[in-house]
Specification:
mainly alpha, 3 helices
């Protein structure tokens, strides 16, 4: 799954944060963007190789592009997990609240779906997002 390069909310953090935490979040998202660029370049080169009739090069470039895509997803997952832990650390939100700042839309949807299932399984009657 790939994530659009947009996030929910205007800022990654909904509270005052150390520069180190924001720098780590930005570093992970930047690495993901770099992998996305590499993936796109490989896929473009693969398409060109295929059009030239060089099937072996097209396949190799396509596989390289897939590896970059997997790395992009890993970095985005790390960033999503990191920002969620930071924003939802004990004392930063109430027990019936989740903060999705800094999440890409698909990430936020996945987190919300998991949290709703958890709430239902534990008899919770409401959830603030």
């Amino acid at each position: 799954m790939s994530y659009p390069l947009t996030q929910l909310g205007g800022h990654a953090f909904n509270h005052s944060q150390s520069g180190g935490a924001e720098a780590e979040y930005d570093r992970l998202r930047d690495l993901a963007r770099q992998e996305h660029s590499k993936k796109s370049a490989c896929m473009d080169k693969s398409r060109n190789a295929y059009e030239r009739g060089d099937r072996a090069a097209a396949h190799a470039l396509s596989e390289e592009g897939k590896r970059h895509g997997a790395m992009m997803e890993q970095y985005n997952k790390q960033a999503s997990d990191f920002i969620f832990r930071e924003n939802n650390a004990p004392g930063r939100t109430e027990a019936d609240t989740i903060d999705l700042h800094g999440q890409f839309v698909e990430e936020a949807e996945d987190i919300l779906e998991q949290r709703i299932k958890y709430a239902q399984a534990h008899g919770e009657t409401h959830l603030h997002v």
